[in-house]
Amino acid sequence: MTTLNELKPGERAIVLKIAGGGESRRRLMDMGVGKGVPIKVDKTAPLGDPIDITIKGYHLSLRKEDAKNILVREVKNG
């Protein structure tokens, strides 16, 4: 288990849990981030913020602080 912000571009993972609570957690869930959902990291800005991902067939940019709250299990490519 790791957090989304630790993945590198091209890596894939499955969401295990969204840590924290409140408005930030609700906003992530409204964007489609939820338990069991596959995610692919497309690219990361030079300083690590934001992180561009593909989730449920669409592209999404997340702040590093939000990505730190998404616990994932890496899935090997291929």
Please supply descriptive tags for the structure shown above:
single chain, 78 residues, alpha+beta, six-stranded antiparallel β-sheet, globular
Percent in helix: 10-25%
Largest sheet: 6 strands, antiparallel
* Shape, principal axes of CA atoms: globular
* SS elements, strand count: 6
Q: Would you write up a description of this structure?
A:
- A hairpin with a 2-residue loop joins strand 4 (51-55) and strand 5 (58-62).
- By secondary structure, the protein is α+β, with helices and mostly antiparallel strands.
- Strands 1-6-2-3-4-5 form a six-stranded antiparallel beta sheet.
- The two termini are 20 Å apart.
- It is built from two helices and six strands.
- The protein has helices spanning 22-30, 64-67, and strands spanning 2-3, 12-18, 38-44, 51-55, 58-62, 70-75.
SSE layout and pairings?
Blueprint: E1 2-3, E2 12-18, H1 22-30, E3 38-44, E4 51-55, E5 58-62, H2 64-67, E6 70-75
Antiparallel strand pairs: 1-6, 2-3, 2-6, 3-4, 4-5
Short description:
This protein has 78 residues and is α+β, with helices and mostly antiparallel strands.
